[in-house]
Amino acid sequence: MASISDPQSQQDSFRLSMLLNDTRYRGLTFQFIALILIIFVMAYLGMNLVSNLATAGLTFSYDFLGDPAGYDINQALISYTSQSTHLRAAFVGVINTLLVALFGCITATIIGVTAGVLRLSKNWLVAKLMAVYVEAFRNVPVLIWILIIGTIVTISGANPRAFLTRGGSVEPESEMLFGAFAFTNRGFYSPAVNFGPGWIIVLLALIAGIVGAFLWRRHMRKTLYASGKLLPGWPTWIILIAPVVIAQLVLGSLSLSMPDVESNNFNIQGGTVIGKPFIALWLALSVYTGAFIAENVRAGIMAVSKGQTEAAAALGLRPRRVMNLVILPQALRVIIPPLISQYLNLTKNSSLAIAVGYADITATLGGITLNQTGKALECVLLLMLFYLVISLAISAIMNVYNASVALKER
Amino acid sequence: MKKTVFLGALAATGLMAGAAAAQTLEDVQSRGTLNCGVTTGLVGFAAPNANGEWEGFDVALCRAVAAAVLGDPTAVEFVPTTGKTRFTALASGEIDMLARNTTWTFSRDNDLKFEFTGINYYDGQGFMVPKGLGVTSAKDLDGATVCVQTGTTTELNLADFFRKNNISYEPVPIETNAEAQQQYLAGACDAYTTDASGLAATRATFEAPADHVILPEIISKEPLGPLVRHGDNEWGDIVRWTLNALIAAEELGVSSANVSDMASAAGDSPEINRLLGTEGNLGEMIGLESDWAVQAISAGGNYGELFEKNIGENTPIGLARGLNAQWTEGGLLYSPPFR
């Protein structure tokens, strides 16, 4: 003990060569050298950039974000005109990206879990069909799928003119479904909901229904655990729906405005429109990512030992309950981590939106704004920042969820 | 101290890299080929033919410049660019010049730091609609869905036109002309808008061109021309005067058929002699051989010949000279004198 901590001998023993020869210091030496190299490479690239910008007479500034954009966007969830600023155009793009990413993640999960479970089905045909789906979508680039699905949606829908009466002068070729729904090659038209007086009460009734349904489910579970008696599930739906229906019937505050086929010569006006670009991109991203999620789900299920299934079956649980109560909760631990990266992939893949004319952030800020202002560096840096923030946010949320389903080690 | 020296050296390297960009002529000559940016495909202006060779009105300008600089009209590397990638390609030095029906605007000239070296086609933005729609004027397009190429002046003019006339529309942004054509034919949009020349060229490739009409309104001025980077005036002059040489050649009656005869000996007309290098030293002034204009004209012909061959009335595109006639014939083409 004394000989090791002797300060005299330590001082004597440290020589410069120990930085390379002594394993205690070698790691630090190499890390330091690597750090210096990285700093110099970054500095070199940065200086190059600055001097080349100066030579070309270009300046680095974000002032252009305050200028009028000058172009129109076909899907804007916040008010936007061609006189709005580039910044607002970027926000429109951000919202569109988040919208398609959110819906894409939800449907991709539903498709993926279904396909993953079905691929393990004992039914040969179902299992093989799912295998074909997974392999076909996983092994073809997503851009190709976006283009294929965009084309299919364009070809399969009727031209909106087929529904138009053009001021009553023409007999329309096609009737809208229930006079309210139409699937065209430019989007899906449905009635819009108008919020009349008292709509807040209807909304509260809806919330009350949801809370009530939730409480009934909890009551069901408690009764099941306490007495072993399984209460029926159907009252959930009645509790969920009844209050809002009654409130609406009494107050009549919500009304529907039907899509208008008379006033315009080219398109159906009014109503709620889900644009073709959104449908195409959403479907393509969902089925593409769904194929990957299906494989994650299959891997997760197969990771649960067969003994669990047999034990559950021995207890008398039916196959569906075995899946829901025994297998999936355990499989989730294996499924969630790769699922996070699939959500990130889907969000990043949504940047291919312009292929079908969808105005996401890459199309507005990284496309039209970049091109009209020529501020390539500024726009691309902003884009990178946006995708970075979104990806980290998704990771953070999913990590919290992962922690909640992970194996609790006590 | 050491660090300062190192950073100084880095800065010097950076500056040298910047300075090198200002010597396009030497780069092109030492490389032996001209890198010319064109569209990804617009029949008549720039598109590969059945043999995979690029041809068209813009392509011919690239070939004329290559002939003037390198003496070989085939020494061109064509780089297809979209409306979005074209300016980055030029600014980064990937291409030496851009001949891609690009509209000359104030901000492109000054803010993007490019230099437009002339106008090779006076154009304007128009609309094409299927005949079956029964539309006769662009002002009837209220509520229509319009396909438009993204990253173009067209997109901005479109927004302005509809706003000015207080009518609504829905834009469908499209990346390339080919995609726009497909969307338009599939009925995903009611109208397609781009430069009128582009509409004519696109319509010419349809199975049934007669089923589509180009509306009479021209909603903008679109002077299309070749452009180069700011800051290399010698190179800019070469591209500018090659275009002028082609225009002047038509005015002076010099064509690909008679140019070699006329260049063999000095003739009666002093301006033709100066243009063709049999008199004076214009070639030397621009840093090229004395027969640079002869080479440019023999590459594909004078302006008029190029027009007739690629987009003129006898081609499927069938554009009339209109504004693009010589000033002596009521058009806007007017080359400064060669002296």
TrEMBL record, chain A:
Q: Which domain of life is it from?
A: Bacteria
- What are its GO biological-process terms? amino acid transport
**Which Gene Ontology molecular function entries are recorded, alphabetically?**
transmembrane transporter activity
| TM ranges | 25-45, 89-118, 139-158, 198-216, 237-258, 278-301, 350-368, 380-401
Q: Which UniProt keywords apply?
A: Amino-acid transport, Cell membrane, Membrane, Transmembrane, Transmembrane helix, Transport
InterPro entries according to UniProt: AA_ABC_transptr_permease_3TM, ArtM/GltK/GlnP/TcyL/YhdX-like, MetI-like, MetI-like_sf
State where it is primarily located: membrane
Pfam families, per the entry: BPD_transp_1
- Domain ABC transmembrane type-1 intervals: 94-398
Localization per Swiss-Prot or TrEMBL: Cell inner membrane; Cell membrane
* UniProt topology in membrane: Multi-pass membrane protein
> Gene Ontology cellular component?
ATP-binding cassette (ABC) transporter complex
What PANTHER family has UniProt attached to this entry? AMINO-ACID ABC TRANSPORTER PERMEASE PROTEIN YHDX-RELATED, MEMBRANE COMPONENT OF AMINO ACID ABC TRANSPORTER
Similarity-based family: Belongs to the binding-protein-dependent transport system permease family. HisMQ subfamily.
- Its name, as the record gives it, is L-glutamine ABC transporter membrane protein/L-glutamate ABC transporter membrane protein/L-aspartate ABC transporter membrane protein/L-asparagine ABC transporter membrane protein
From TrEMBL, chain B:
Task: Fetch the Pfam families from UniProt.
Answer: SBP_bac_3
Q: Which residues form the Solute-binding protein family 3/N-terminal domain?
A: 33-262
Task: Fetch the SMART domains from UniProt.
Answer: PBPb (SM00062)
InterPro entries in UniProt: Bact_solute-bind_prot3, Solute-binding_3/MltF_N
Could you give a single Gene Ontology term from the biological process aspect?
amino acid transport
Keyword tags: Signal, Transport
Q: Is Transport one of the keywords UniProt gives this record?
A: yes
Q: Where is the signal peptide?
A: 1-22
Q: Family per UniProt?
A: Belongs to the bacterial solute-binding protein 3 family.
Which protein are we looking at? L-glutamine-binding protein /L-glutamate-binding protein /L-aspartate-binding protein /L-asparagine-binding protein
Instruction: Specify the species.
Output: Palleronia pelagia
